[in-house]
Amino acid sequence: MWKYPIEEKIVDNLSDKLSKYAKTAGVIFLILGSIGILYPSVMTVVTVTFFSWLMLLAGLMAGYFTYLSDKNDHIGWLKSFILIGVALFMILYPMSGIGTLGLLLSIYFFMDAFASFSMGINMRPSSGWIMWLINAIFSLLLAVLFLIGWPLTSVYLIGLVVGFSLFFDGVSLLVTGYIFKKLGK
């Protein structure tokens, strides 16, 4: 369309900022991911602790909004008490929390494998169906790995999965930062 000098300055300024922030976040994620890969049990404890505190905050907020909206809502109070109780249990007994989170991740990966197999089979004549099949196989392998030695394997597998996820998110953010930098030129 038409090129106005003011629009070009806004786009250049915005792409410079996005590039800077994406690169900064990418480096932070790379560092955190590397720590998770090198020390998976530490990353597991950090992940479970973060997840527990997040659940505690969610329980407190659910209780607060139940109090504000309808003090007689028994289901709302039950939800907040369950969230707070489970969160406190996971904070006070982190090994049980690690086992629980490992089992939940196993269930998630089994469901993801099933969904990916279904998607791949439904897309079979089209291009790209093989990627869904590969995704399904990897998800199934992760689910089985979590389940084979559960709960002991959860101690290092949660940290590895989170570490690899953060590491590749960091790589993606760095690449995105360089793309934004090129867009600004």
**Which percent band covers the strand fraction?**
under 5%
- The SSE order reads HHHHHH
Number of helices: 6
Low-confidence stretches: none
Mean pLDDT comes to 84
Shape: globular
Which structural class matches the secondary elements?
mainly alpha
Q: Which structural traits does this protein have?
A:
185 residues, mainly alpha, 6 helices, 88% helix, 0% strand, globular
Overall description:
The protein is mainly alpha-helical and 185 residues long. It has one domain (5-184). It is 88% helix and 0% strand. α1 runs antiparallel to α6 (154-184) and α4 packs across α6 (154-184). The two termini are 18 Å apart.
Brief description of this entry?
With 185 residues, this protein is an all-alpha fold. The chain is built from six helices and no strands. The model has no long low-confidence stretch (mean pLDDT 84).
Give the secondary structure arrangement, pairings included.
Layout: H1 5-38, H2 40-69, H3 74-92, H4 94-122, H5 129-148, H6 154-184
